[in-house]
Amino acid sequence: MAAIFSRSLDARLRQAVVGVAVAAGLVVVGWYYYALPSYTRVGYQPEQPVPFSHEQHVGQLGLDCRYCHQSVFDSPHATVPTSQTCMNCHDPKKANVKGTSPLLAPVRASYEGGRPVEWKRVHKLPEYAYFNHAVHVNKGVSCVSCHGQINEMKVVRHDQPLSMGWCLKCHHAPEASLRPMAEVTNLTWAPAAGQTRAEVGRAIAKDLQVNPPTNCQGCHR
Predict the structure, then answer these.
(1) Model pLDDT for residues 151-186, shown as the tens digit of each residue
(2) Helix %, strand %, coil % for the chain, to 5?
(3) Domain count within the chain
(4) Which of these, 136, 141, 148, 143, lies nearest to 197 by C-alpha position?
(5) Pair (150, 176) in one structural domain
(6) CA pair distance 6, 12, nearest whole angstrom
(7) 178 bridge partner residues
(8) Which residues constitute the domain of residue 33?
């Protein structure tokens, strides 16, 4: 009896089955990898060389964001504070707050040795995306919009996905994220009674002429 399928066709069928199985496996692995917090970074909360609590410094003591992050309104990149900034309050020679605490040893070593504290980066955008920090905060976008309630965090975590879809959602309807310029670093700000965030945001968008780009070239250069 003649064979229904030739040997070559049988081999090609086996190759096709193996190829489909491998492709399906890659799709599953890829989907699982890119959905993990380690990739999206949401919830990423690394242990830092110095246990700095924003909950204590900002939430309880009322330290303004700009005291440590001094260039957020002027620079495309938000900067971390230098050890000099920390030593303004924690210098043991001035008998300031907890100047001899062992937890602050890396800060003292940095200050005396002229080497920066090796903070671990929490928030990160893809290399192909261009983001100007100063442009956003000078248009009324608060720290909370991207970083969450940082004043309630003992350890800073990556709060929002910062994905393209997440950014575009704000670019298409920026009024939801805008607030008065005087309140940008006020992490507990809320609209006055009888007002909604959208109403306040629309007024700010008109006043500051907020018109964020919604095309590719606005963020990918």
Answers:
(1) 999 999 999 999 888 999 999 999 999 999 999 999
(2) 50, 0, 50
(3) 3
(4) 141
(5) yes
(6) 10
(7) 141
(8) 9-40
Name the residue with tokens 């043991």: 92
CB 158 within 8 A of CB 122: yes
State whether 156 and 202 are in the same domain.
Answer: yes
Looking at the chain, the number of H-run helices and the number of E-run strands are 10, 0
15 and 97 share a domain? no
Backbone angles phi, psi at 23, to 5 degrees: -60, -45
What's the rounded Cα separation, in Å, for the pair 107 and 110?
A: 5
Q: Are 175 and 87 in a shared domain?
A: no
Angle at 37 between CA 35 and CA 43, to 5 degrees: 145
Q: Is the same domain home to 30 and 64?
A: no
Neighbouring residues of 175: CB distance < 8 A, sequence distance ≥ 6: 197, 198, 200, 201, 202, 204, 205
- Residue 66 shares a structural domain with residue 140: yes
Is the domain of 96 the same as that of 147? Answer: no
User: CA-CA distance, 46 to 207, in Å (whole number)?
Assistant: 39
- Cα–Cα distance list, 185 to 57, 144, 158, 179 (Å): 14, 8, 18, 10
With H, G, I as helix, E, B as strand and everything else as coil, classify residue 97: coil
Q: What is the pLDDT of residues 78-133, one digit of tens each?
A: 889 999 999 999 999 887 789 899 999 999 999 999 999 999 999 988 888 889 99
Q: Which residues touch 221 (CB under 8 Å, ≥6 apart)?
A: 130
Which has the closest alpha carbon to 214: 169, 161, 162? 169
